[in-house]
Amino acid sequence: MTLSRIAPYLQAAPLTLILAAFLVLPIATIVMVSFWDYDSIQIFPDFVFTNYEETITSPVTWRTYLNTLKYTVIVWAVTLLVGFWVAYYLAFHIRSATMQMVLFLVCTIPFLTSNIIRMISWIPFLGRNGLLNQSLMTMGVIDQPLEFLLFSDFAVVLAMVHLYTLFMVTPIFNTLMRIDRALIEAARDAGASAFQILTNVIIPLAKPGIAIGSIFVVTLVMGDFITVRFMSGGQSASVGLMMANQIALLQYPAAAANAVILLVLVLLLVAAILRIVNIRKEL
Amino acid sequence: MNSEKRGPGFYVLTAFFILFVLFLYGPLSTIFILSFQGPNGGLTFPMNGVSLRWFENLLFEQQAVGDFGGAFSRSLILGLMTMLTTVVVSLLAGLAFRRRFLGSGPLFYLTIASLIVPSILISLGIGLAFNVFGLEPAWYSSGFGAHLTWTLPFGLLIMFAVFNRFNPAYEEAARDLGASPWQTFAHVVLPIILPSLIGVGLFGFTLSYDEFARTLMTSGSFNTLPLEIYGMTTNVTTPVLYALGTVTTLFSMAVILIALATIAVLRKRRARRLAG
């Protein structure tokens, strides 16, 4: 009897311990180090606010945060649009469950391969002598290669959409599959047009999935640095990239202060999404 | 809905879906083709002949930079460690969450937080924590922990989905027939959820095998494969980069297909046993 009472605690213990050691403790360390002082060779324990002051008062920081938010908004809008219609197609237009599963896996498999390689794979396509420029020139649409395709904001957004759309497709697909088909039937019998069914029945019921997908995409883009560094060729900035650069310069307290600000911002965005949509039913 | 004729919306969305799949796979197929570039070919089209030159170069010759073999075996071992731990820990936690227990709410939110905290924060935090405690970061300690913070939430969410659909009547039947809790678990629960556990394992392995941001500051002095590949992008200018991309992608795909095939076989076997 006592064993069955303590069983859940024993079962939950490994997860709790791992998260305590590798999530809670590291974040506590970041908060602590963000008040430390540093010089060009080392960091030392202290309690100063200079790291925050320098971060917040620097115009570079503001520009970088704005740029990161810009990426977030654009990538969120595009992945939502693409992800919703892909999920909608799979859920409502594919009629056999097997075909649904197969097509869903077709969308999922690239997500399980390396992000770095998926980024590299854009180079032969978008580069100055890449496939796109070559074909456009052969077709006579342009006279000289388009320069903005690679190593630009355009490339960053394209690669992020490529990497992260699946995070939008999966939760939306999940909610769409749970919609009782009788509701759509009823709406149609009551004389609703296809568009009215979409806006009055399907989208409201898909909101939890949209919210979960949005949380994924927003947090991934806000913290991203590798896509920005690689696809912009070092010409654009993001918060993650700024942190990575500070880390490379061993300015850990500055990076830590930045990390705390980023974390607060991300949590505020997530809280805002959760205020608009209640996802609890979904979990 | 199934009895209706296809409307124009179907064809528009089919075209859209095909475009989406092309968008997902198109770039990958270009580096796949270019990895067979001739010995004098460059990083872009046109193909300058067809050869296996770059695969030979990758697999049998000493690279000017990097250590592909070492990085691959480290990533493989780390992936397997992460996979096993993710399966066991998520399964246990999934079982725990079937009942209410003190602190289940906070633990759940902590797990979700692990998913939404940006990777670079985890990387920086673990790196700093090891530094503060005077420990040497290494891929099998700090890197391993960093990967678990990414794979465990996925594992737990899959276990939630599994146990939400799990019919407790099976367990009650086993108990009524006199099975001990352990027997109920081993002979009733485990066989039913086995395909999902393979799914959790697949996630655990592939997410770890491809992880970059969380490994960056936690891998210590030896690179994992994604770090190695990233290093190569800055100083390798031959198609050997694409050959590496092709080899590691084929490896990932093989792992995925083996896992999916195993799940399919298990499902079929179970269906047959239920029918017979």
UniProtKB/TrEMBL annotation, chain A:
Bilayer-crossing regions: 12-36, 71-90, 102-126, 146-169, 252-277
Keywords: Cell membrane, Membrane, Transmembrane, Transmembrane helix, Transport
Superkingdom of origin organism: Bacteria
A Pfam family hit: BPD_transp_1
Signal sequence bounds: none
Membrane topology: Multi-pass membrane protein
Domain ABC transmembrane type-1: 65-273
Subcellular location: Cell membrane
Broad class of the protein's primary localization: membrane
Family stated for the protein in its record: Belongs to the binding-protein-dependent transport system permease family. CysTW subfamily.
Matching PANTHER family: INNER MEMBRANE ABC TRANSPORTER PERMEASE PROTEIN YDCU-RELATED, INNER MEMBRANE ABC TRANSPORTER PERMEASE PROTEIN YDCU-RELATED-RELATED
Protein name listed in UniProt: Spermidine/putrescine transport system permease protein
Organism: Ancylobacter vacuolatus
Automatic annotation (TrEMBL), chain B:
Domain ABC transmembrane type-1: 72-259
Stretches that traverse the bilayer: 12-36, 76-95, 107-133, 139-163, 184-207, 240-266
CDD domains named in the record: TM_PBP2
Cell compartments where the protein resides: Cell membrane
Keywords for this protein: Cell membrane, Membrane, Transmembrane, Transmembrane helix, Transport
Superkingdom to which the source organism belongs: Bacteria
Membrane topology: Multi-pass membrane protein
SUPFAM superfamilies (UniProt xref): MetI-like (SSF161098)
One Pfam family matching this protein: BPD_transp_1
InterPro entries: Bact_Polyamine_Transport (IPR051789), MetI-like (IPR000515), MetI-like_sf (IPR035906)
The keyword Endoplasmic reticulum is assigned to this record: no
Family, per entry: Belongs to the binding-protein-dependent transport system permease family. CysTW subfamily.
UniProt protein name: Spermidine/putrescine transport system permease protein
